[in-house]
Amino acid sequence: MTEIIDGNAVAADVRDGLADAIETLTDAGHKPGLATVLMSEDPASETYVSMKQRDCAEVGIESHHVEIDPDAPAEELYDTVDDLNADDAVNGILVQMPVPDHVDTRRVLRSVDPRKDVDGFHPENVGRMVAGHPRFKPCTPHGIQKLLEAYDVETEGAEAVVVGRSNIVGKPMTNLLIQKAPLGNATTTVCHSRTKDLAAHTRAADIVIAAAGAPELVTGDMLGDGATVVDVGVNRVDADTEKGYELVGDVEYESAEEVAGAITPVPGGVGPMTRAMLLWNTVKAASEQSG
Ligand code: GUN
Questions:
Q1: Where's the Tetrahydrofolate dehydrogenase/cyclohydrolase NAD(P)-binding domain (predicted)?
Q2: Which residues, judged by CB distance below 6 Å to any ligand atom, belong to the binding site of ligand 1?
Q3: Which of 7, 101, 165, 173 can bridge 269 by disulfide, Cβ–Cβ 3.0-4.6 Å?
Q4: Ramachandran region of residue 268, left (φ > 0), alpha (ψ -120 to 50) or beta?
């Protein structure tokens, strides 16, 4: 029987686990605050940001939202981040990516105060994580670690294949999997668009993490029997539905489910965990800044 990994349930547990800390901080006059900054009219980005605000309201985190016209000068975004860095009511800052082409993404990531960098994208925080002493683990890889832990998927000595090498998922996921730490110690291979024989790698894997942004790239015949399959993809593909599209992952679910030992669905797998770990990082930030 293939186990369906329920990201909504594990995310709810993560949120419940934060309740005491949020109450203690709030009672002491340090209600955690998260700022979201959106400089985009991309419907998916708008949806993600509004879901993050809803999550905050649900657990008692104050959300501060700034929307910037995508045609505005880049300085408007840089100045906004400076203001949020200086605002004591804001413990965490998330600038929704991607930003418009005329904005220097690396400058934005560098300009967020590393103590408020709840995405874990600032070079100082990337460095800390790679060196094995993370301050904020990036939310998606951290959420995947929590999912694997919740479902007793052993990473120690496992063959893990990460498909995708993005700064947001593939690279940090790889770093966490190879660390000498709980939920690490996996023998980890990174595959990407130039990999010659993807299926040869995925077939030999105990754990496949698909994060390439390619709809249904990984199919059942590319998996070993009983593998754990984690699907990070959220791809809009044209479909004869009311909205004119449907969401599919990087894994072809129907064929993969027949082979996998455990699999995350899309939606309801990794997505809710990414959002839960953002709350987790915000509470960590608030608690460190309250001292
Ligand atoms: N865009 C897609 N994923 C993310 C994320 O985890 N954080 C931010 N800031 N932007 C994103």
A1: 138-289
A2: 94-97, 119, 139-140, 168
A3: 7
A4: left
Q: How far is the CA of 96 from the centre of ligand 1 (A)?
A: 5
143 & 40 share domain: no
Element (DSSP H or E) covering residue 263: strand 262-263
- Does the annotation count 96 as an active-site position? yes
Q: How confident is the model at residue 3 (pLDDT cuts 50, 70, 90)?
A: very high
Q: Which amino acid is at 290?
A: S
What is the C-alpha separation between 199 and 115, in angstroms, rounded? Answer: 40
* 82 in a structural domain: yes
**Ligand 1 nearest-atom number relative to CA 140:** 6
Known binding positions for NADP(+): 164-166, 234
Q: What are phi and psi of 213, to 5 degrees?
A: 70, 35
Task: Give me ligand 1 centre to Cα 42, in Å.
Answer: 13
Provide the ipTM. Answer: 0.95
Per the structure, how many domains does the chain have? 2
- Using a pLDDT cut of 70, give the percent of the chain over it: 100
pLDDT classification of 291: cutoffs 50, 70, 90? confident
Give the span between the Cα atoms of 37 and 49, in whole angstroms.
Answer: 8
How far, in Å, from the CA of 179 to the mean position of ligand 1? Answer: 23
Known binding residues are 164-166, 234
Are 270 and 247 in contact by the 8 Å Cβ rule? The answer is: no
Domain coverage including residue 79: 29-114
DSSP state of 50: H
